[in-house]
Specification:
flat; about 0% strand; single chain; mainly alpha
């Protein structure tokens, strides 16, 4: 398989459940995202969340 074929055949599958996500999980993900780098550190970031469906 070449790169073009791999990219064009790629599929995203998302599975959702009714289980609640512990509060610490999104907090940790957002904390890691705040430390991530971007090109020349020029990218502004915005994040939001909700605890209700």
């Amino acid at each position: 398989m070449d790169v073009y074929e791999a990219v064009t055949r790629r599929r995203v599958v998302r599975g959702f459940t009714d289980r609640p996500v512990p509060t610490e999980v999104p907090e940790r993900v957002l904390s890691a995202a705040a430390w991530s780098s971007s090109r020349a550190d020029l990218t502004t970031r915005r994040a939001g969340g909700t605890s209700r469906p």
